[in-house]
Amino acid sequence: MIYARLTNQKYDIGLRFKSVTITEFINKDLEFDYQHYQEAVINNSGIKINTETLKSRVIGESHNNYDFWEICRGHDLVKVMQYVFSSGRECLSYGNSIFDEKELSRFIRGAYEEQWFIHTSMYINLKNWQSRKHVDLLDVG
User: Which of 42, 61, 87, 94 has its CA 20 to 30 A from that of 15?
Assistant: First the structure.
């Protein structure tokens, strides 16, 4: 799903992901059904595209050497984590509490450490941009 979004942006395909809920494509064994997800996204987008071409491009992007944590869309990750934590599996559930999306997002942001951010490409690129533009937006590192 991450690579589908990346492919869509890179090739300006016009796919709309907004009203497609990714957790609908995760089965009880926590396996993701990419084929049905892709069909739902295409149908939601109202565009005609060769599904094999799209699949080929997505697979091609997945073979590039991207850092997963830099291309992962946090909102999707939270949705999947929320689904897993509320799946009723004793080993995965957090007590009797079912996290809502905002609460889980808040916990994740609170756990993220500055030391990790300063090693990302995003941080390095922003620092380089700041240096070229003679501005100081980042108060870390």
Answer: 87
